[in-house]
Write a structure and sequence with these properties.
mainly alpha; 4 helices; about 60% helix
Length: about 120
């Protein structure tokens, strides 16, 4: 039995997600000024749906993606690079979780004090 799946390391996934987020935000800010329409722009909505789907594929579901997606529907608010901020926040949180998991593995369990039991 062969396994035809492609595995991407977590570091590569974050780099790919960040590059995609920057490209999507740049498209919405610089290249396509017609996206200022917010919810009325079908091209903007398609781009956001696609970016959201790829982000969930690369990084899994995170609550940070929901405000990024919804904010793009409000005219004028889509001028903020929400996809880039969301990926940066997911990366920051994953690093914090990795550090706390590492610290909990390194810390020996506390022994009970027989005099205070």
């Amino acid at each position: 039995m062969t396994d035809d799946t492609i595995t991407i390391s977590p570091g590569s996934r974050f780099r790919t997600a960040m590059a995609l987020a920057i490209i999507a935000d740049a498209l919405q800010l610089v290249v396509f000024p017609i996206f200022v329409e917010g919810a009325l722009s079908p091209a903007d909505d398609l781009l956001d749906f696609g970016v959201g789907a790829v982000m969930v594929y690369l990084l899994g579901w995170h609550w940070e993606f929901l405000p990024s997606f919804l904010a793009k529907l409000v005219p004028g608010v889509d001028l903020v690079p929400f996809w880039t901020l969301a990926v940066a926040n997911v990366y920051r949180k994953s690093k914090q979780m990795a550090v706390s998991a590492e610290e909990s593995r390194e810390r020996p369990p506390a022994l009970k004090d027989p005099q205070h039991s």
